[in-house]
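Why does residue order matter? Because the sequence determines the fold. Keep that principle in mind as you read this record.
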Amino acid sequence: MQQAKLVFSIHGYWHAGSGSGEGANLDALVVKTQAGLPYLPGKSVKGLLREAMQTAEELGSTVTKGTTVKLFGTTTGTSSEAEISRFDTEPGTLFFTNAVVEGMETWAGDNGGHLAELFKPIASTRIGSDGLACDETLRRIEVAIPLTLVAVVETNETGPSWLKALQAAAPLVRGIGSGRNRGFGRCILEVIQ
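Structure:
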């Protein structure tokens, strides 16, 4: 099995949601490892790279047509397409791990009291056309500080074509987590063998 490292150098606050909140204090918490460190789930890593690969393929760059489906598999489509169940999909040849902070599990165990320094609450509200805050739109979310996360991608593919395709798509991943299209989670992704 061949593998490569995916290195996400995050340059701003980021939020990979856990789906839970903290009552009246925070509306959305960051997903954390058992040691309390933030991470990016493998499913999200795969989704970011799939989107980048599809864009590279559509731009006609060094990624050939059909590469996205070959490496990432088929999807269930959208509601505008014919109804497809998950049993009608084909798997891809790539497998992704969670993107984690390397080497900090021991630090987190030894410095549990300092884990709070890795997170910060951010508040936001929607402003109406009159220039005033809209009622009931104040949200407070937890964000993680800029870090470097590392994931591993594995494949049964032979030859370097899968790696070259990932390296071509990597620069198109410009942000991670929720709010990435509004400035959160700006990053640079490197694919290293």
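Residues 141 and 167 are 33 Å apart (CA to CA).
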